[in-house]
């Protein structure tokens, strides 16, 4: 099998929520960075051109409508340097690339899921603060307990652990989240916190 090579600029995610009544709300795009094919960090807003963001949000909303989703649909989208959008993956659930919605959006993806499946009015998806997450993989535990106190000394950083009892390399064990005056500041905070672990 041969695949066309794409001149990629970045990957973004767009989360859409749809209720059984057909109401749809879309979150602002998040920008994702992967290492070894695992999401390393994600940041809101994505910092892409507004025209591209509008197209990506429209695409996610149309996918949720056409698929008849009742709940959430996260569209992971490749963006080429020419401004083309290619859907890479669809996830019909809360998604790792929107964990920062709990800090940065008027309605988190978790609350939105409950609203959607209960056919309640969907919540406001507006960004209230730039926010970022960095994933914590089991690798951080391989030499003993991480230094969470050092990580939490970074202003505005929160720790979220998933209560998984067996750390192993590549396994998502939790994440660090932060807000900031800008997306760059939020991202710098979580990356620095992870470095201190």
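^ structure tokens above, recovered residues below v
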């Amino acid at each position: 099998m041969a695949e066309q090579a794409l001149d990629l600029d970045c990957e973004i995610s767009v989360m859409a929520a749809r209720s059984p009544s057909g109401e749809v709300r879309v979150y602002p795009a998040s920008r994702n960075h992967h290492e070894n094919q695992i999401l390393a960090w994600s940041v809101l807003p994505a910092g892409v051109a507004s025209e591209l963001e509008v197209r990506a949000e429209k695409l996610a909303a149309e996918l949720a409508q056409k698929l008849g989703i009742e709940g959430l649909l996260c569209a992971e989208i490749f963006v080429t340097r020419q401004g083309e959008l290619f859907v890479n993956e669809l996830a019909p659930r809360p998604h790792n690339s929107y964990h920062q919605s709990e800090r940065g959006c008027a309605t988190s993806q978790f609350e939105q899921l409950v609203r959607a499946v209960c056919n309640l009015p969907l919540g406001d998806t507006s960004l209230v603060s730039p926010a970022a997450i960095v994933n914590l993989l089991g690798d951080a535990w391989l030499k003993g307990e991480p230094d969470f106190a050092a990580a939490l000394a970074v202003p505005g950083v929160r720790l979220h652990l998933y209560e998984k009892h067996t750390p192993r390399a590549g396994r998502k064990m939790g994440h660090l989240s932060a807000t900031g005056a800008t997306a760059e500041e939020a991202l710098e905070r979580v990356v620095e916190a992870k470095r201190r672990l």
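The helical segments are 50-67, 101-104, 109-117, 148-152, 183-196.
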